[in-house]
């Protein structure tokens, strides 16, 4: 069974792509990040809520503030990456809904009036968008190194002091360096992950 | 700024792909789903935990049980799709970790010993995998119709009575039918979603 997506694209995005643990010094430009964003922004979210926010950690000072909240090897790894992105949920994403989802102009004040409901939906949809963003990094010919080993409460205090954004993932981005990849780990077989009823 | 991914693949996966609301009768085979799975299983998760489970709703009886828990238009939409998948988190994903992440053979009994920690990490990573799966459906030349408008507690009781799986997304899958697409909604601009520090 062959896919509609060509084999080179399959390799680029999934089959040969791997999480990178080291990077070269080659910079990742804002233009590259914009090209990634302008592709993956089209990935679907519920009511087009588009709750993901991306904070590019560019200055040395910001990088040092970020790695204070890293666990274990994630600190040195992050210091060595040409670009690091903090992915967060905009807990006030509903403010944009009248523009983003004009078909239902009142959901900002109905479905999403409550902060708790926004946090649940916003986190789920920002996480879907994080999946698209990782695919987009690879689409740009770059490697991603996504990390959850951070004290995200600390990251939020450090970068999002107004309490309106909640970080959930940090991604190193760049060209893979020396010994960038661990051996590919096994995946679950189709029959282990997929069942029919 | 151009991406490494060719333009046809960009269109197939993101630029021209849209959430489908109607479908043709053309069946979606297990072989197609396996081809999708065998591509997107390589998408990264923390410690390769691979917590996503996919339940293909194939029988008429199962389809009717599912739509009882659908909200609004999601019921009729789901009845009209050639294939519907329930996406869930395996709350016992840690049982597979000694095989999936042999580099750290003890994390099954350390990091992931507590059910609450598994639920948080498992949900986040299964949601990332849901993003890859939506991209994979499009890679197969099919359209996805992801829906969160279900009573997932009811879906869990109906399909996962043992409490070991927690559903979070339902996706209709097939070839788009007549009037399948709403007009593309606007997306946030780069400067609205991405900031530099």
CATH architecture of chain A: 3-Layer(aba) Sandwich
Shape of chain A: globular
Which series of helices and strands of chain A comes N to C? HHEHHEHHEHEHE
Instruction: Give the tally of structural domains of chain A.
Output: 1
Structure at a glance:
With 197 residues, the first copy, chain A, is an alpha+beta fold. Chain A has helices at residues 7-15, 30-40, 60-67, 74-79, 97-100, 115-139, 152-159, 190-193, and strands spanning 52-57, 83-90, 143-147, 165-174, 194-196. The interface between A and B is large, with 82 and 82 residues.
Describe this structure in words.
Two copies of one chain form a homodimer. Chain A is of the alpha+beta class. The first copy, chain A, has one domain (18-175): NADH Oxidase (3-Layer(aba) Sandwich). Helix content of chain A is 38%, strand content 16%. The first copy, chain A, is built from eight helices and five strands, in the order H-H-E-H-H-E-H-H-E-H-E-H-E. Chain A has helices at residues 7-15, 30-40, 60-67, 74-79, 97-100, 115-139, 152-159, 190-193, and strands at residues 52-57, 83-90, 143-147, 165-174, 194-196. The first copy, chain A, has a four-stranded antiparallel sheet with strand order 1-2-4-3. In chain A, helix 1 (7-15) crosses helix 6 (115-139) and helix 2 (30-40) crosses helix 6 (115-139). The radius of gyration of chain A is 18 Å and the shape is globular. The two termini of chain A are 22 Å apart. The relative contact order of chain A is 0.22. The mean pLDDT of chain A is 96.
């Amino acid at each position: 069974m062959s896919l509609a997506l060509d084999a080179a694209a399959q390799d680029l995005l999934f089959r040969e792509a791997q999480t990178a643990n080291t990077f070269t010094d080659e910079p990742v430009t804002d233009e590259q990040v914009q090209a990634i964003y302008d592709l993956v922004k089209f990935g679907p979210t519920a009511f087009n809520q588009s709750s993901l926010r991306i904070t590019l950690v560019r200055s040395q000072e910001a990088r040092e503030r970020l790695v204070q909240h890293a666990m274990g090897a994630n600190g040195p790894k992050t210091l060595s990456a040409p670009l690091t992105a903090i992915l967060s949920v905009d807990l006030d994403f509903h403010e944009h809904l009248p523009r983003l989802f004009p078909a239902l102009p009142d959901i900002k004040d109905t479905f999403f009036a409550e902060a708790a409901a926004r946090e649940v939906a916003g986190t789920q949809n920002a996480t879907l968008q994080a999946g698209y963003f990782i695919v987009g990094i690879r689409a740009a010919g770059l490697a991603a190194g996504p990390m959850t080993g951070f004290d995200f409460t600390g990251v939020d205090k450090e970068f999002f002091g107004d309490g309106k954004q909640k970080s959930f993932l940090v991604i190193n981005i760049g060209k893979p360096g020396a010994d960038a990849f661990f051996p590919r780990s096994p995946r679950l077989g189709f029959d282990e992950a997929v069942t029919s009823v």
